[in-house]
């Protein structure tokens, strides 16, 4: 059995989310630490991280409308090289040079997809939940992952940080899965049953490159 395609989650797997949440805090006029703490709290409760924004606007908030307002004010989503983890570009390049198909697919906005494509990363395709109209952990998301990856489920690895949204549904769809231990959700849920379902648990993308492209190919537990 060989790996033919590697598909990556985006937030906290490839992209640090410091800028994302910091810019939301600035827009909402609250200290960055306040929003960061609320994000951690709602996720620990198993809730959508966007509920942190809703807590700050208890009378109601249309998050999509707020995104449009931010864009109109010139304060929308942005991304540059400093937002990537240091190992991202080299690892993606090494995987692609080894002949694997490399795809990015996560729960992000259309704008984030555009920004990622503009960075000219060494990947074959970029997709976001907003573009597909379906979000993880919906099984349809992973059906589309397989379609975009172009390989059989057992020959595809999905790499992500959030066990309940990345590892469990990927395994349910028949994919191999690598849990990368970085970003708050990876540490928060590191000892869960969902995290234990991963074929590999890694601390860096360079580890993944070694596993998938090593001299004897991938080894399976």
Automatic annotation (TrEMBL):
The keyword Cell wall biogenesis/degradation does not apply. One of its GO terms (molecular function) is hydrolase activity. Pfam families: Hydrolase. It comes from Streptomyces rapamycinicus. InterPro entries: HAD-like_sf, HAD-SF_hydro_IA, HAD_sf, S-2-haloacid_dehalogenase. It comes from the Bacteria. Keywords: Hydrolase. This is HAD superfamily hydrolase (TIGR01549 family). Signal peptide: none annotated. The keyword Hydrolase applies.
């Amino acid at each position: 059995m060989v790996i033919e395609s590697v598909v990556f989650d985006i937030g906290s797997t490839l992209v640090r989310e410091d800028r994302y949440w910091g810019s939301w805090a600035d827009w909402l006029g609250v200290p960055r630490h306040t929003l960061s703490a609320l994000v951690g709290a709602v996720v620990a409760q198993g809730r959508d991280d966007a509920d942190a924004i809703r807590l700050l606007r208890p009378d109601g908030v249309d998050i999509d409308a707020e995104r449009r307002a931010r864009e109109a004010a010139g304060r929308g989503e942005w991304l540059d090289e400093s937002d990537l983890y240091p190992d991202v570009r080299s690892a993606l390049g090494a995987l692609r040079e080894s002949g694997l198909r490399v795809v990015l697919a996560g729960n992000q906005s259309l704008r984030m997809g555009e920004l990622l494509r503009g960075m000219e990363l060494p990947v074959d395709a970029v997709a976001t939940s907003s573009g597909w109209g379906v979000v993880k952990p919906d099984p349809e998301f992973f059906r589309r992952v397989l379609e975009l990856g172009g390989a059989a489920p057992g020959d595809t690895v999905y790499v992500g940080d959030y066990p309940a949204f990345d590892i469990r549904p990927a395994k349910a769809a028949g994919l191999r899965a690598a849990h990368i231990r970085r970003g708050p959700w990876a540490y928060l849920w590191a000892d869960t049953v969902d995290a234990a379902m991963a074929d590999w648990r890694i601390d860096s993308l360079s580890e993944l490159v070694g596993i998938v492209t090593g001299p004897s190919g991938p080894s399976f537990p």
